[in-house]
Specification:
With about 850 residues, the protein is of the alpha/beta class. Helices cover about 30% and strands about 20% of the residues. Helix 15 crosses helix 16 (about 470-480).
């Protein structure tokens, strides 16, 4: 099937998120294959950045007899259009209706995406309730951290998978293929899934079956994602990712991931470096993030960063880390991280109270916080992000006050630094030592945040916080039960979806619907006894419940538990003590070496090449890319060029960029037969330049001409002052008369609004001519030193076209007019 009709896409916000066409998307012939539709149930900008979701996409597609595609939640305007036009939600790769797939698999990492699951199912014409699904409907499966308590959504999902997905794939494929080829019925398939120890099938054995968490025991040998999807729309994360380790033994008692991802497993340094180099080349990203729950706990983190930097710095690529643990950085690490450009630094402090640090088992000191900030400052960082939480058990007002006092002291001592402080309400989660504790109500949390803000006086401290009502609902679902299925259904039917986006979240609606159903949401905030049966007890993780109980009691007594990798086994149950003592204790005494505090000077990047070559390039992009904005084109072209093996000249400074000049910005909804860029190469260009570049771009983007320029001053783009634009429409008599009147005048004055200012402008001088052919209108546009005509002005004021929904438009060619003579750019 073709993609969504233009008349829909041109009426919605950010249509590019619905068309696919990304670099590294997997294209196969779907015939004869098990078809799986994978979804991270959020908007494209979030979902396409999910590591777990993309890992499943790559692993499934490595199987010759399987084709995995993707779909994401849609904005409300797109939902209205799809519903009005009575068409199905489509996959990104082949634009197939979602209901035509054999399996739909959700990666669920966040509770407030639950209503998005229902949106995707409804727009796919798939019954929302498992019990209502037909033999022809896809089997709906789900995994991810948010399904470790699956009960709040167990009416909507056919099969839940508990654990890490890499070693579940073969079972999913085996059962899926039997059903696809009619060897078994849909019901038989569910029964086979239920026989697996790591699955929960609500309609069958349900909670009477112990579900055993699946762990990838071969993680250290598994390759990382080799070909990350490179989005063409703006996303929250614009970088490659390589997972360096999984699991954490620091034992923070509030952290669910630190418990459910045990035991700790590390990948070998050489494999990490090879994977990082490969994924950077395959994607064209400028940065690779070394992903881990605690990256600085990787045993050979300094050699890893140093050796990886040597491999990638030649192309001005850099390394990022999700967060830095206080006390775990040293001069060698910061030198490597900042050798090309400085990525952001995030430090998770959590609390300023020594007592609460013992309660939550956060083994850091305030002195280490100051040392860490001082250390980063001396290495040139001027901006640091700090994370805190409020609402911990046994928290008192004086503990809250200590956060404000700490921030004031930091702001005063480091006056030339900027601190962005994020405060999050604590949410107790299953399978943590705090799964039994009470969660603060929203009013309590607002009061604590206001208390901190009233104390902080420094202007270099910027405080942001997560809405307490949002965290309240997270807590409801995190420790919720099956009664919440009806609440989620009712809220969805009343229009609630995209709750994770503040502009769409409606706390009052959730409260009203809960009241109608006689559901008291506050009961999910209550403290629980150790002897209580928990609704998720039927799920068995590697970390034992008895260990969590011991840690709960230790928190009650403000006692800390050591990191088993630095000392001895703590008997958590995740392993048999194999990793105990494997990591030497290191409190980074090097922080206090005098020479570490010498400010690094910016290194000037000096090219060894003595000759540089300026290149003028022409390229086209097909109609499928008409929704690219100018900014999207810049990002798309830059990443594509970095995927080549060409040696580019770069700008200087701490954030080097390829030296590149772009042509006249292209409006959205227009494709092009000719676009222009100029680049600078180190050395000479070879005759295979176009072939080398085209290999790095997806089908639909085609570079077809290049010319060497004698110098930057010989720019062709700077001389271009004409453009032919074509509208594929038949001009009626009304348009022809309007155009004749326009061309017959020397002036056509309009009022243009710019930044709340209005001025009158003669747009006649920007139009040389307008030609009419069969089913075609060609507009010859001229650019002047004082600007040009805007696209909307051309359509409305000149052609009288106010509705472009069914009209295809493209840029035909650029020209140069000098001294009364017009030249093709090829002739310059």
């Amino acid at each position: 099937m073709n993609q969504y009709p233009d008349k829909i896409l041109r009426r919605v916000e950010n249509p590019i998120q619905y068309i696919g066409k990304e670099y590294n998307e997997m294209m196969k012939d779907p015939s004869g294959k098990l078809r799986i539709l994978l979804s991270y149930p959020d908007l494209y900008t979030i979902g396409v950045s999910s590591l777990g979701h993309l890992l499943m996409y790559e692993l499934f597609n490595k199987k010759d007899d399987v084709y995995a595609e993707r779909v994401y939640a849609v904005q409300k305007d797109m939902e209205r259009e799809i519903t009005k036009e009575k068409i199905s939600l489509l996959s990104l790769e082949t634009h197939s209706p979602a209901k035509k797939f054999d399996i739909i698999g959700f990666t669920i990492e966040y509770e407030l995406t639950y209503t998005n699951i229902l949106q995707i199912l409804k727009l796919s014409d798939i019954p929302l309730l498992s019990t209502k699904r037909r033999e022809s409907d896809p089997i709906i499966i789900a995994g991810g951290t948010a399904v470790y308590n699956p009960l709040p959504i167990n009416s909507f999902i056919d099969v839940f998978f508990i654990g890490e997905g890499e070693e579940m794939i073969d079972d999913i494929i085996s059962i899926g293929k039997k059903r696809k080829w009619n060897e078994i019925t849909r019901q038989n398939a569910l029964e086979l899934f239920d026989e697996l120890e790591y699955t929960y099938v609500p309609m069958l054995s349900g909670t009477s079956k112990d579900v055993i968490q699946k762990i990838n025991s071969n993680f250290k040998f598994f390759p990382s994602i080799e070909k990350n999807i490179v989005p063409i729309a703006k996303t929250v994360h614009d970088r490659a990712v390589v997972e360096i380790s999984r699991g954490c033994t620091r034992g923070c008692r509030f952290c669910q991931a630190g418990m459910i991802y045990r035991p700790v497993r590390e990948r070998e340094e050489n494999r990490i470096i090879a994977d990082a180099v490969k994924v950077l080349h395959n994607t064209g990203y400028k940065e690779v993030t070394l992903l881990s729950l605690s990256a600085t706990d990787y045993r050979e983190i300094n050699p890893l960063i140093k050796n990886l930097t040597k491999e990638i710095s030649r192309k001005n690529l850099s390394i990022g880390m999700p967060s830095i643990r206080v006390g775990d950085i040293d001069s060698e690490m910061l030198d490597s991280l900042s050798s090309v450009r400085k990525s952001g630094l995030t430090i998770a402090v959590e609390t300023a109270s020594e007592k609460l640090r013992k309660v939550i088992n956060k083994d850091i000191t305030i002195e280490e916080v100051f040392d860490t900030v001082r250390f980063t400052q001396t290495h040139g960082w001027k901006h640091i992000k700090l994370y805190f939480m409020v609402g911990f058990p046994y928290e008192k007002n004086e503990d809250i006050d200590e956060i404000g006092e700490l921030l004031n002291t930091l702001g005063n001592e480091f006056r030339n630094m900027k601190f962005t402080v994020s405060i999050s309400p604590f949410v107790p989660r299953p399978f943590t030592p705090f799964q039994w504790v009470r969660q603060n109500l929203p009013d309590e949390t607002y009061s604590k945040i206001d208390r901190i803000k009233s104390i902080v006086k420094r202007k270099n401290i910027d405080i942001t916080y997560r809405e307490p009502t949002v965290s309240f609902l997270e807590g409801v679902f995190a420790r919720g039960d099956s009664n919440l299925n009806s609440l989620i259904m009712n809220a969805f039917e009343k229009g609630e979806r995209l709750d994770e986006w503040s502009e769409h979240f409606d706390y009052d609606l959730w409260s009203r619907e809960a009241k109608k159903l006689n559901i008291d949401l506050n009961i999910y905030m209550n403290e629980k006894k150790l002897s209580d049966d928990l609704s998720w007890d039927f799920i068995k993780t590697k970390v034992s419940k008895s260990f969590l109980e011991r840690e709960f009691l230790a928190a009650e007594n403000a006692e800390t538990t050591f990191d088993c990798r630095s000392f001895k086994c703590t008997s958590c149950g995740a392993c048999y003590g194999e990793i105990a003592g494997e990591k030497k204790i290191s409190k980074n005494s090097v922080l206090h070496k005098q020479n570490d505090f010498q400010r690094r000077k910016a290194k000037k990047i000096v090219s060894l090449q003595t000759q540089r070559t300026n290149i003028f390039l022409l390229y086209s992009f097909g109609i499928e890319y008409q929704y690219l904005s100018h900014l999207a084109i810049i990002n798309f072209v830059n990443s594509g060029l970095r995927r080549t093996n060409l040696e580019f000249a770069y700008t200087e400074g701490f954030n080097p960029r390829i030296k590149i000049v772009y042509g006249v910005p292209k409006p959205v909804n227009i494709y092009s037969q000719m676009e222009m860029i100029e680049i600078m190469l180190e050395g000479k260009a070879n005759e295979n330049l176009l072939e080398e570049i085209n290999k790095a771009f997806p089908k639909g983007i085609h570079f077809f001409y290049f010319k060497e320029l004698k110098s930057e001053k010989m720019s062709i783009i700077a001389r271009v002052n004409r453009l032919n634009m074509v509208f594929l429409t038949e001009a009626d008599d009304k348009m022809r008369k309007r155009v004749d009147d326009f061309l017959s005048k020397k002036e056509h004055i309009i009022t243009r609004n710019n930044n709340d200012k209005t001025n009158e402008l003669n747009i006649r001088k920007f139009i040389d001519d307008i030609e009419f052919e069969k089913n075609l209108v060609r507009v010859k546009i001229s650019f002047h030193p004082d600007g040009g005509i805007k696209f909307n002005e051309l359509c409305s004021n000149v052609l009288g076209l106010d509705d472009l929904a069914d009209i295809k438009i493209y840029r035909e060619k650029f020209l140069v007019k000098e001294q009364g003579k017009e030249y093709e750019v090829f002739d310059l």
